[in-house]
């Protein structure tokens, strides 16, 4: 009888042990699924990482999510990190970052995020498949940006953020000094899929931009000698806008098939050369100007104080820069380089790369000179 009891006890203990092992493995699987999410239904844009839990005292879980989309290229990764850091430290909103990158950069980005003060942010790393751009862009010797695929990520917002009704897109050469929630709450007029900062706004016209083309008007971006452009009946003197920072109504974006419209004009440009030969700015700007002609809302100009990446940026006063909600180093001179304006403001938010792959050019030059 006692022998049977011993067998029963052993059997019970074995079952308990088995259940404990099963429970442990289940928890491990749950953690894996939580931290690595893939969506095989989306061709070309594959989520790699998803870190869904910020510290409980950091945000109110009942708050609406604020999706922020930003690109992360290997040679500009420090800019992405600084931008994210500035956003995170100037808000208590429920921000989730959708960081769009290429496969070879993902590991570098992940290690940087996990080893810094940003390790508790909520983010998703999304791989951008360059095949999406086949037949839509062409290499131009004088327009190097045309071969940088991540600059076109902004065209695919509804795919990048499939469950959101609204999102913010911003370039990697920005610093946010205000609460990102204020930008997110920018009102959009009925029927408008996006809100941009116009190039004729009060902040931009404080400086004079030198260079080929007219950077304030449509004629600086589109070739009005082409019949297809003339047929659109868009006034060449229409004020252009900057697509480096904007708020998108994704419900309206999808309803109007904005992505398909943008791709249409990209293809037509490859076939017919519709963009200005003295393109005033980003290669992404012309199709956006066409699709959103007189059909976009505006953001507060202090949420895109730009030209800090050109010589004109030096004309801003320190007081004006301090008052800006968002600083944008668009232009040839980036804040991680040698000659940009107000680099000290940018460097306040920069987090050194733990891998040592990315370094500030000016600092590297200074060290070399000392040696």
Contiguous runs where pLDDT drops below 50 for at least 5 residues: 21-44, 53-58, 206-213, 363-371
> How many structurally independent domains?
1
Multimerization state: single chain
Report the major sheet: 8 strands, mixed
CATH topology: Spore Coat Polysaccharide Biosynthesis Protein SpsA, Chain A
Estimate the global geometry from the Cα principal axes.
globular
Task: Indicate the radius of gyration in whole angstroms.
Answer: 24 Å
Under the CATH scheme, which architecture would be assigned? Alpha-Beta Complex
Task: Estimate percent helicity.
Answer: 25-40%
Our count of helices gives: 12
Question: What number is the mean pLDDT?
Answer: 83
* CATH homologous superfamily assignment: Spore Coat Polysaccharide Biosynthesis Protein SpsA, Chain A
Name the strands of the widest sheet in spatial order: 1-4-3-2-5-8-7-9
- The number of E-state strands comes to 10
Distance between the termini: 86 Å
Q: Kindly provide the name of the CATH class.
A: Alpha Beta
